[in-house]
Amino acid sequence: MGRAAYRKRKYHKPGTAPGTYDIAETREAGHGSIEVIDYSADGFERRAGLEGLESAQSLPNRWVQIAGPPSLDVLEAARQRFGINPLALEDVVNQGQRPKFNDYDPGIFLTLSLPLRNSENAFQQLSLYVLDGLLITFLEQEDGLFSPLEERLRRTGGRLRQREIYFLMHAVMDLAIDMLFPLIDETAVRLEELETAIMSHPKEALLLETHAFRSRLLVMRKVAWATREVVNELRRHLEELSAGDLRPYLEDAYDHIVSAIDMVETQRDIATNLIEVYLSVMSNRMNDVIKLLTLVTTLFIPATFVVGVYGMNFDRTAGPLSMPELGWPLGYVGVMAGIFASMVAMFAYFRHRRWL
Amino acid sequence: MGRAAYRKRKYHKPGTAPGTYDIAETREAGHGSIEVIDYSADGFERRAGLEGLESAQSLPNRWVQIAGPPSLDVLEAARQRFGINPLALEDVVNQGQRPKFNDYDPGIFLTLSLPLRNSENAFQQLSLYVLDGLLITFLEQEDGLFSPLEERLRRTGGRLRQREIYFLMHAVMDLAIDMLFPLIDETAVRLEELETAIMSHPKEALLLETHAFRSRLLVMRKVAWATREVVNELRRHLEELSAGDLRPYLEDAYDHIVSAIDMVETQRDIATNLIEVYLSVMSNRMNDVIKLLTLVTTLFIPATFVVGVYGMNFDRTAGPLSMPELGWPLGYVGVMAGIFASMVAMFAYFRHRRWL
Amino acid sequence: MGRAAYRKRKYHKPGTAPGTYDIAETREAGHGSIEVIDYSADGFERRAGLEGLESAQSLPNRWVQIAGPPSLDVLEAARQRFGINPLALEDVVNQGQRPKFNDYDPGIFLTLSLPLRNSENAFQQLSLYVLDGLLITFLEQEDGLFSPLEERLRRTGGRLRQREIYFLMHAVMDLAIDMLFPLIDETAVRLEELETAIMSHPKEALLLETHAFRSRLLVMRKVAWATREVVNELRRHLEELSAGDLRPYLEDAYDHIVSAIDMVETQRDIATNLIEVYLSVMSNRMNDVIKLLTLVTTLFIPATFVVGVYGMNFDRTAGPLSMPELGWPLGYVGVMAGIFASMVAMFAYFRHRRWL
Amino acid sequence: MGRAAYRKRKYHKPGTAPGTYDIAETREAGHGSIEVIDYSADGFERRAGLEGLESAQSLPNRWVQIAGPPSLDVLEAARQRFGINPLALEDVVNQGQRPKFNDYDPGIFLTLSLPLRNSENAFQQLSLYVLDGLLITFLEQEDGLFSPLEERLRRTGGRLRQREIYFLMHAVMDLAIDMLFPLIDETAVRLEELETAIMSHPKEALLLETHAFRSRLLVMRKVAWATREVVNELRRHLEELSAGDLRPYLEDAYDHIVSAIDMVETQRDIATNLIEVYLSVMSNRMNDVIKLLTLVTTLFIPATFVVGVYGMNFDRTAGPLSMPELGWPLGYVGVMAGIFASMVAMFAYFRHRRWL
Amino acid sequence: MGRAAYRKRKYHKPGTAPGTYDIAETREAGHGSIEVIDYSADGFERRAGLEGLESAQSLPNRWVQIAGPPSLDVLEAARQRFGINPLALEDVVNQGQRPKFNDYDPGIFLTLSLPLRNSENAFQQLSLYVLDGLLITFLEQEDGLFSPLEERLRRTGGRLRQREIYFLMHAVMDLAIDMLFPLIDETAVRLEELETAIMSHPKEALLLETHAFRSRLLVMRKVAWATREVVNELRRHLEELSAGDLRPYLEDAYDHIVSAIDMVETQRDIATNLIEVYLSVMSNRMNDVIKLLTLVTTLFIPATFVVGVYGMNFDRTAGPLSMPELGWPLGYVGVMAGIFASMVAMFAYFRHRRWL
């Protein structure tokens, strides 16, 4: 998502029936990949493509991974075979949703936001549809994100494989939450660099970058808060279900997301503080500059006036009051000494008032 | 509504009985249009005008559309024939209400705010009165807003036509919510342009426009929050009713309005950030200007003083201490060299303190 | 109340027994007027003065209006005849209370704040004591405020007259709430004028007025929030009573006060925004002034230095390096051309850096 | 407390057992006074000192007043004779606690903060321990604060004397709350003076005083909020007890403390506003100064350059282009007229741009 | 933790199974110390090292202290012997967790943050695992922190030794909370010094230090709030347990942490206020400087222009209008008097407008 995506969220035309997922309007539709994994404590089967999707479920648990924009066929198959609510499919097609939880009895539908790898501040949407024995994940981009999970499923005797599908759902969600931490960490490192740089050489570019960081953290904060709400709703929902021993895992996920929120907010405070520090430092520097200006002006402008006086061309022969000083043997020395003395006095006054 | 409308909301004279709808005071009264649609899964009938309003209801569901300021006859007919509470009619006449939910058992009354098409920041009021089998909509302006809904109703076999009247109410409300998104999108595009413009050429006009945007977003935010409250109340209310399968649709509407709030608040943060960036950039630029001022002053004012000294007209014949330098063969060159050297030193000092 | 009154709220000496209403200390005591109205669907009787207060109640509902500071006799009569709690009477005597709700079983006691007519930002206190069949109103000032209500009561067949006393209480409260709207409207109009004025001719007086407005809105906001709380408490309380059909009227009053809060807060945001805009505009104007200062200084100070150089009186006969330029035929023209060229270059540089 | 006290709150060494009240460390221990009052509707007895504390309770209600730092004997006596929880005694010894409510079944323990008389911003701690028939008050300083209450108790037939001990507790608490109002009032008066002074003659000292006031209000606000919480807890707690007719008195105390909070927050807003106004006024004044600087510079620096030109000493005999103007009969008048004209033009331009 | 630690919190790789505690990745693993204390009212035994951990529990209560980074053996032993949830162990290994409460039925797991002694703003993590009769504490660093508690346990007849293990848990937690107070106190003392210093000699270094303090207080506030939440959860949890007489102790701990929060927030407000005061003082000082600049410029620049005029070299013989003033006997005196008079007038004007 990122700031751009938050703005450019797709929306259907006002007046359209809710639950409309008009693939035709979606430019990149139909290029998604499909992967179907059936598993139980004893078995593991993996199929690909639309045929996989339509194949009979051979083992108690099935995980359908749909990555990239799905074709209309796939969506229709999902709707008819697994009874997914069209409102959920509408959210899958209109990417850029904020993290949310929907309970389409009997299934539940989660939307999450994942930081995109290799991209500075963009998020992709991950949607999960869960029923007893079935998990469907819709991922915006194909990028092998789930390979560590597949690996854990493939291992005979792995804890994940012996449990109900809700544990797999938790694993996927946990992955989404954990992906926030490298992003936060990277931001933290850069913020620290910015702080060092601003302290030594404040420059406008650093200020603008800090501002940009604060905007990034704003988006991360929104994602994290919405995710926290999702985990919360899930906790409440699963208490009604039988999946009781999932509870500590959800608590753990909740702790993680709260921790992420905490870090993001701390960083926002640091960034705000940094901006204030920058402005203070710049203002102090400006004050120094203006003091110099004032010092120079105050020392030399009156002196320039005085020497200007004795540069006047009044006719000394016109009368005894017409610039007689010009003829005094010590006139020049006197004037220069007077100027010098007043400069020293001025300087002392400045020191006294702590302006230097 | 818009900022203007928020201020200019009509109100009755203090001391008047509540539920008074004094049409006489309403300038534009009596120019509204009336359209009555009776429908069921099998039938669709459409009548216009006051006669339509008074005709017997031929099919299970009736939708009465009143657009523009209604005449007293229409209001009286609505009150007597459908038993609308006078407090509700008072709100219809006194336009500019904030979105709200009222439960006048047995009917419910919703007030919503719709962005006006072709107008920058104005909203119009949409009021809905719902009873079993009856929906009355009061729209501030006649502008064919509901034609996509009529189209969907006209289609035989359309989902909307087969359901209870509450689904039509949801469709109207959904339309009102969805109309916020193009407005938000437009704001987002303009904000992005402003950001680019401010970064390259900061100008006062851009700042003022950003301030104006922030005010607009303030109004949008208020409308969105109040609408969210309405949807919430509706959710709570409908749980008591039999319209149980409406729930996911209301959840969907709720998600949309929360999403709108989210975007509006993000944009407000961006606008605030932009204002801060503008002020920082301007302040930096001003600092540069003041540094230049100080540099020029510091380099040339002392120098001007020195040349002023040798422009004095002291009589060199008055004595040996009366400006003897003027007669030295290298006096001129020495003075100029001294000035030049001190300028270079000053310049170096500036560089050293990073003022350039 | 107003800002002043908020400060000057009377309080009893610490250590005094609660429920003490020491009239002796109240300067203006004893000048209030008393009016007693007994009414039912069929009858209407009106008496004045202390005798009216002590007369037997002839009809099911009695409304006692006490306006202006009451005398000790009146308070004692109220306490003994109607059993008002001394704590309530203490609040009546110590004017300047914030709006609040007290449940002195069996009676309830409301304190409200009414904008004073013909006064810019002052509020007066209105207290209501309600029992079955009895309403006592204490108004700080006598100003015929209730005449529209009396008019409605006097009318045979009027809705208000046929209902229980709680409807009269609602009518009084509704009057208090509705009196906020003209005040809000007036503020809105003045704020708009201020905005226009600040945009064209920013002046310190306008800024100070906007600040003053924000303070006013602060007080209005406090009154409105406290009133909202009162209405809320009343809603909760009356659900326990039998006065069930009062509910939509209270909802309506609640909607009104929420609407007032909404407008006041919008105006506060507008005022804050206006102050920020003023400061930005002033700052921009100052920047322009400083740029001009810098331009003039940068163009002319170096030039003045140069001409100062050639105003020095070094003796050209002292040697070949002693100001030989002064004797060159094109010396003058060359210097002037050099100065002019460097001024043009400086100017071009300014344009280039967008400082003009 | 005050700002200082908030910081200097005593705390025991980490790792010490909770409930330790190590008198030895308390410098001023053992100088407190003890006063014991036994009372009922019919009797009133007063004893002093440790013997009074240990005497048998002769009447149904006993009020033990301990003022000033208590000695270890007193604390031990209190613990053994009345069963006070050591945790409560620890709070008595470690002065500077924030207002709080503790329920040490069967007794309850309240800590309150009282403004110190004759001191600008300091608070003293008042602790109350209440059991059926027993009230112990610990006051930080001996200053006859409770004499009005004793007076009320001494009066035969006084309401306070005929009621349970909880009414005395309420009276003490009410006293503590009511003592906030003179403090608030005093602040309000000084704030108003500050406002007037800042409007006419803004000075740095006034700004610093306003800042100091805001800090004071911060402390008062914290005390008031914590006290409100105490009253709230007490309300909740006493509903479980039999002291039912105390309820309206607690409601009254609650209203008072809410009112105090309201005033303090209004004053904080006023102080903040005042600081902003001061800064705006100073900034406007500075702008005027800078405009004057720019005006003078702009008018005279170019003119000085021009007269500098004609002060150059180019040899008029060197050629026809070497300062021929100096020999023109109207040269001097022309130059002066040109300078004057350009000054007028400059001035007109300034007026036009509203810089004057 | 401190600001640094908040950022550098360790996290496992996204996609890893939750509950993974990969010691291999932890650099400093395996250097921790182990100490096991078995105690009851009558006995006290102390063992060290892994053998101690694996020894049979001889007395009803056991306290296992693990300090420094634990080795994999220790963790495995803890998991197998005491059944600690792997999720808890993961939090022990990944240091830098925020304070939190986890209920791993039957045990509970607390994470707290302790200020590091001899370090300015760093915190270490303290984790507690509690079961009936068992307390395991994991401390990040070995530093004899718990010696006062051991001392209290060792004392025969000590209260702590006679109670259940939950009282020991409380004692450890109380220690963690109490360690905040010296830190807060130290900050308070330094803040007061900063205030004094800023009031007399505002310097950039002081401003930056105040900013740094505000950041520190930010971290302390986060720790304190999270700790408060932990105590709260614990209160709620222990009400379900039988440890009923622990309640007042937990209330006491709760009061302490709320008190800490209160102080930290007060200090943050003071720090913010201090920054504002600094900026105001600096701005006032700058205004004084600029006023001086303007005064000097305004007094001397016009005067310099005038003397420049009479320094012009127009040929007095060219005509009667060519600088005749130069030949007037009182010309020089007149010019000087005029300049002096205008300077005095200017100065008076400045005084009048209160610019000096």
Strand and helix map with partners:
Five copies of one chain form a homopentamer.
Chain A: H1 2-8, E1 33-39, E2 44-48, H2 49-54, E3 61-67, H3 72-82, H4 86-93, E4 100-104, E5 107-115, E6 123-131, E7 134-139, H5 147-154, H6 159-162, H7 165-178, H8 180-200, H9 204-240, H10 247-309, H11 331-352
Parallel strand pairs in A: 3-7
Antiparallel strand pairs in A: 1-2, 1-3, 4-5, 5-6, 6-7
What does this structure look like?
Five copies of one chain form a homopentamer. The first copy, chain A, is an alpha+beta fold and 356 residues long. In chain A, 56% of the residues lie in helices and 13% in strands. Chain A contains eleven helices and seven strands. Chain A has helices at residues 2-8, 49-54, 72-82, 86-93, 147-154, 159-162, 165-178, 180-200, 204-240, 247-309, 331-352, and strands at 33-39, 44-48, 61-67, 100-104, 107-115, 123-131, 134-139. A seven-stranded mixed sheet of chain A has the order 2-1-3-7-6-5-4, sandwiched between helices. In chain A, helix 8 packs parallel to helix 10 and helix 10 runs antiparallel to helix 11 (331-352). The longest helix of chain A has 63 residues, at 247-309. Chain A is rod-shaped, with a radius of gyration of 36 Å. Chains in contact: A-B, A-E, B-C, C-D, D-E. At the A-B interface, helix 1, strand 4, helix 9, helix 10 and helix 11 of A face helix 5, helix 7, helix 8 and helix 10 of B.
State the gist of this model:
Chain A contains 11 helices and 7 strands. Chain A is α+β, with helices and mostly antiparallel strands.
